[in-house]
Design a protein that fits this description.
alpha/beta, 6-stranded mixed β-sheet, 12 helices
Length: 336
């Protein structure tokens, strides 16, 4: 910076102002400094700045190694929200299906790489004791906290609400009950979506057919639906995600059943592709970007030592109704 200041004929403070886009610099001076920066190939040293300021302006994102839509979108949206706040990010993965120790090590690695706080975009069900082992790290987790903590916050998508909305929609169309193809029992979103499904059925006094759980894929949705077709009759199916719903639709078609004439079908995540299926899919849309922005705001507050808010603004789910859901055949009946 001193070299840039000398060549441009200004003070180091003026160079700093230009690099930080301060409006307190005349346009001709700003242009001269920027030209000098380009000519000398100057780059600010982040490590030196962090050492001088006592902070890095970097947050960590911990996620599993997966390309599943929800997790990948969450990571991208957290990075975008951080960038909009002028923060850098470092992403550390835990490995798909890794244990609690892997999450702890990933958080510690993010901190060692300069993160002042960490957003955990890791959807597996974890032991609450994991957070106790990370008590000194500002964290935002995608689940309810087991107990209040001065440095930890919660920012979660409306998984349970989404499962309830999908089921209530199908019941409201006149279906006697709704069967469910769930996600893995080790994944928090799957557990919560199933809980919302059960809550809606019980509130309506509808029969509960125990779900068949898959692995978020179209193939597992196909296989699970074929199994459901050997059980009790049904006219409505709620799938834990859109990929699962696509596989379910294939199994129904092979069984000679029409969607939605014989069986109504609702998915979850509202992937961009599902409105272009031959029968556009009704699906639950979540505000993943809203969750990401909330997570970053909460983490910034935790890093600054601010008290935890009394209650975070809710991030609601939305049901997008398309052609795959309708009333039961003839006002009644069931798939067999």
């Amino acid at each position: 910076m001193a070299d840039v200041a000398r060549v441009a004929g200004v003070s180091p403070k003026t160079v700093s102002r230009v690099l930080n886009d301060s409006p307190q610099v005349r346009p001709e001076v700003r242009d001269r400094v920027r030209a000098t920066v380009a000519r000398l190939g100057y780059r600010r040293n982040g490590a030196a700045r962090a050492l001088a300021a006592g902070r890095t302006d970097v947050i960590g994102i911990v996620a599993p190694e997966t390309d599943l839509h929800g997790v990948a979108r969450h990571v991208l949206d957290v990075e975008r929200a951080a960038r909009e706040r002028g923060l850098g990010t470092v992403v550390v993965t835990t490995g798909d299906g890794a244990g609690d120790d892997a999450v702890r090590r990933a958080v510690e690695r993010a901190v060692s790489l300069g993160a002042e706080g960490v957003v955990i975009a890791e959807p597996l069900v974890r032991d609450p004791a994991l957070l106790d082992a990370l008590a000194d790290v500002p964290l935002v987790v995608p689940a309810e906290l087991p107990h209040p903590h001065p440095r930890h916050r919660s920012a979660a998508a409306a998984e349970e609400e989404g499962g309830r909305l999908a089921t209530e929609h199908l019941l409201g169309l006149g279906h006697e009950t709704v069967v469910h193809v769930g996600g893995p029992a080790t994944w928090r979103p799957a557990v919560l979506r199933e809980r919302g499904w059960r809550t809606a059925l019980r509130a309506a006094g509808a029969r509960v057919v125990e779900p068949v759980r898959g692995e978020w894929s179209a193939r597992s949705g196909y296989e699970a639906t074929r199994e459901l077709l050997t059980r009790a009759p049904f006219t409505a199916l709620f799938a834990a995600n859109d990929s699962t719903a696509i596989g379910a639709g294939r199994a129904l078609h092979e069984a000679g059943l029409h969607v939605p004439g014989d069986v109504s079908l609702v998915g979850f995540d509202d992937l961009p592709e599902v409105e272009f299926l031959q029968t556009p899919l009704s699906s639950v849309r979540q505000d993943i970007a809203g969750v990401a922005h909330l997570a970053v705001e909460l983490l910034v507050g935790a890093m600054a030592g601010e008290p935890a808010p009394d209650g975070a603004a809710p991030v609601h789910a939305e049901l997008v109704v398309r052609a795959s859901s309708g009333p039961p055949p003839g006002g009644g009946g069931a798939a067999r």
